[in-house]
Amino acid sequence: MRIPEDAVLARIFVGEDDRSDGKPLYEALVLKARELGLAGATVLRGPMGFGHASRLHTAKILRLSGDLPMIIEIVDAEAKISAFLAAIEPMMGSGLVTLEKVKVLRYGSQPLAQREP
């Protein structure tokens, strides 16, 4: 799989308890990214955070929260990210989606500069 040097990073912030068709939303989003042939996806679990309702979610031992922040990061060509975001819109309830332009220096085992066209 190829990824352009000038790409887009999508970050999707959801709650650990958010669901889509009975499965965790973060899992459904990663599976949709794979189905659509995106370059890859990573899910990060946050130990603490708050969102639009300002309710604090934390993993502290004395105050366990079952709805910790989950961040899904995906880097790929802008067109593929746009198609992915359109495809997941029906799955999303609340959450935050951000995009930023990135320069990909390495994808796989070789720096992009050493890859064949």
TrEMBL record:
InterPro entries: N-reg_PII-like_a/b, N-reg_PII/ATP_PRibTrfase_C, UPF0166. SUPFAM superfamilies: GlnB-like (SSF54913). Belongs to the UPF0166 family. This is Uncharacterized protein. It comes from Candidatus Defluviicoccus seviourii.
